[in-house]
User: Fold these one by one.
Assistant:
Number 1:
Amino acid sequence: MLELRSELFSALSETRNENIGALLSAKKEGKKVIGHYCAYSPVELALAAGAIAVPLCGNKKEPFLAADNDLPPNLCPIIRSSYDLAVSDTCPFFHASDMIVAETTCDGKKKMYEILQRIKPIHVMNLPQIPDLPMSITLWKSEVRRLKTAIEKELGVKITDEALREAIHVTNEEARARKELFDLNRNKPALLSGKDLLVIVAQAGYSIDRMSGVALIDRLTEEIKKKAQQGYHVGNEKTPRILLTGTPLGENDDKVVSLVEEYGGLVVAMEICGGYKSLDLRIDETDCRDPILLLAEKQVGIPCSVMSPNKKRIQLLERMIHDFAVDGVVDLTWHGCHTYNIESYWVADLVKNKLEKPFLHLTTDFSDADRETMRVRIEAFLEMI
């Protein structure tokens, strides 16, 4: 399976590593850093406060030696990994953060945050989980405003509406650029492998200069379009086109993607966090209402499995299956992630019963202990297509 090779893609692949030095330099110059764990953390507030907003590490290979001292072994590997990297001081972004923003997306995470607060103060946002109720917007708006107050106090700044609208423009541009890059795989044959997509998912959020990151993605998109005009593509017309949905993953968690592509399939789309999940949720910059309300409305619309009912995820998946000409769907759940594990019922119902396409639900962790079992199941799945 071909993977994209270009100087621009190499630059994107090194975004995280390259920006560690830039982050430390900015810290020395007095710049503040706000770390966040989830798409529900409104990074616009950090940007409007003049801070650097960085996603925090949550993906490393086992063993989680530091986490195993404090956390139960049957927790989701993302929770254990996030905790392990923080307490072992091996995540430079956590280390550099002056303030951590977290959220109650699951019981495991919110209880882990209680223990993690021994190391560094964490501001936990209370997330409403019934998306269609008016009171959910009201509650989340109050939580966004509470975070605004906390950031202003911690950083000694005043967040103005003007600065917040400028930050909204930046995050809109990031979502627009990433979506245009991911949408290249609507082409048949595709233009990006699943491994390429994983690099983009894992790296795109780490640009210290966020508009420079947008420009890099835009240039890469144009470069791939030009390559396509010269005959470049990944796979061929007959390669099974797979959509990956489910729990978040990063470059270190490539077991399933690698196996799909080793055995003849191609992951052309990822609905996961960091992938396609929230790229359509861009704020109308001409909307003159309170920008705090605009942020609240956008984020409550994120189709995460923590929301109940989560109809928007099913609607998004159906649209993606059509737009990306998907032949089959793999639903990936990490051990211990109950919301995604149970919601797989509705994903299977959509894929198998309504759309009549092959469906595979995999439950695993970050280790390679079950790689052979995964290989057998994925190979059989691909043979169905």
Number 2:
Amino acid sequence: MTDKSLRIASFLPAATEMVCSLGLLDNLVGVSHECDYPSEVKSKPVVVRCAMNLASLSLDQIDKAVSERVGKGESVYAVDEALLKKISPDLIVTQNLCQVCAPSGNEAAQVMKTLIPKPEIIWQAPHSFEDVLSDLLLLGEKTGTRDKAEALVVLARQRIEKVFFITEMLKPVKVFFMEWVDPIYCGGHWVPEMLKWAGGIDELSKPGVDSVRVPWEEVVQFNPDVLIVSPCGYAMKGSLKQAELLKSRLGWTDLAAVKNRRVYAVDGNSYFARPGLRLVDGIELLAHLIHPELFEWKGPSEAFGSVL
């Protein structure tokens, strides 16, 4: 049984989504400034904020600023220690995966030393979709909602199997999944798995590891039939705006994806960047974009838009 008095602080959006999917919205006492789903979490106290002002910077400038800060061993995010002490969580969920997405292990560990009583902490560091499901199950175990977590995992697997049952019999479509536009980064971690299940193949992406820079020349050489633009941290409209930067690149008009008008900007925040259950929606979205004749998209219309 869930302890109704349990107080949870989530340092990252994916964990917040997991907490709510387990029916623990009322137990959530602190979130990060990026937590926006479900919408009810926007009213929760914000204990984690970005330590940098990136609003006026271009994509290239953001990449350089973040890389420089991380290179110095400094965090991109700041934890409101005073507020955290005030809300006094019993459980903190954070990650030790990517300093661009949430406070790293060092920051959380330092803050924990100042909290009395000390909360339990769950480190989420998924590198694959299976890791994401394992994180959900662990969260369920720690919060007394293991049965609910197991049911959600079963449903997620069923939805994926429904898609893959069809696509595994088809010839894979060449897809390039772009996680950043300037400079260009390929898909990483769970993205290659998602593409495979959706009927695509991305020879430039890196399964199970961080997204890495990819020279534009390699994209042109790969010549994808479908190009997915999903800059980390952006919803669809932001992705659509950033995708415009690609049109001035040499060889853009020669790409098969451009010739066939199959270049799409997607809501990366909702369906690809955050390692939560909405990755399953992302797989279904990819299946629709790669094989529109076989898969209907039943989700929000703002999930994707055509770049051309």
